[in-house]
C-alpha cells in the first residue's frame, strides 16, 4: 500500500481497512460449504483478538473455499467426458446435471448439404440419457442411431454402429465404437468423397466433445484401429473455420412448428 495514502485507523490502533477486508472475505468463505471443521478452524483464527493482520487468515479461508469450488468443477467435467472406466479427463465441456433415462437437449454435429461441401452443421435433439449419465455418450449414440431432422444432413457413417465409451485427456480423445465385423471400414456411397469422409470423422468427434487441436483415435469392438471409413488415424480435431458451415441456424430444426414472433 502506498505511504502517500495511509491506511485508515479507528483511533484505537486497529486497522479499519484490514477489518473490513477480513469481514468481507469471511462472509464470502462462509457461503461455500467445505469441510465444516476446517472452515470453523479458519474462522476461529480470523476472529482471534490481537491479530496484527487478520486479513491474511481470512484470505486463506477464501482461497480454500475457491479451491473447493474448482475441484468440484473438475470432477463434474470428468464425469461428463470420461465414461470408459479409464483415466478421468480434464473436463472440456460445460458440466451438465443429467439424470439417466431422462430426456436432455444435446447438440449433435452433422455433415451439411453436398452443395455446401458437406461443411458441418448443428442440430439440437432431445436425447434419452443412458445409465452412465454421460452427455457425450448419449450424443454419439443419437448421432449414430437417429436420423437428423433435416433430410439434407447426414452422418457419413454406416448403419449398425454404436458407441461403447469415450475417453478424454489433455489434448486427446478416444471414441470406442461397436458394431458388426468390418463395419468400421464401410464407406457410405453418398459420402465417398474424401472431403465428406474427413468431415464425417470431424462430425463424430465434435459430437463426442472433441476440441480443436485434440489428437483423436478410435477403437472398434475393443480393438485399436488404424483407420475408420477410409480415413487414416490418428487425426486432429480441426478448427471451426476449417470444418463448419459459414452460415447456419442451430436453434430450430427442419419441420419444427414455431409461433410468432420468431427470433
Question: Could you describe the 3D structure shown?
Answer:
The protein has helices at 16-30, 36-47, 54-81, 135-145, 194-207, 240-243; strands at 103-111, 120-128, 162-169, 172-178, 215-220, 223-224, 227-228, 231-232, 235-236. It is an alpha+beta fold. The strands form three sheets. Strands 3, 4, 5, 6 and 9 form a five-stranded mixed β-sheet that branches. α1 (16-30) runs parallel beside α3 and α2 (36-47) packs antiparallel against α3 (54-81).
Number of helices: 6
The count of β-strands is 9
Mean pLDDT: 76
Derived from helix and strand composition plus strand pairing, the structural class reads alpha+beta
Percent helix range: 25-40%
Low-pLDDT ranges: 48-97
Main sheet, how many strands, which sense, barrel?
Answer: 5 strands, mixed
Whole-Å distance between the termini? 51 Å
Please state the CA-atom Rg, rounded to the nearest Å: 26 Å
Order of helices and strands: HHHEEHEEHEEEEEH
Global shape: globular
Furnish the topology, listing elements before pairings.
Layout lengths: L15 H15 L5 H12 L6 H28 L21 E9 L8 E9 L6 H11 L16 E8 L2 E7 L15 H14 L7 E6 L2 E2 L2 E2 L2 E2 L2 E2 L3 H4 L20
Parallel strand pairs: 4-5
Antiparallel strand pairs: 1-2, 3-4, 5-6, 5-9, 7-8
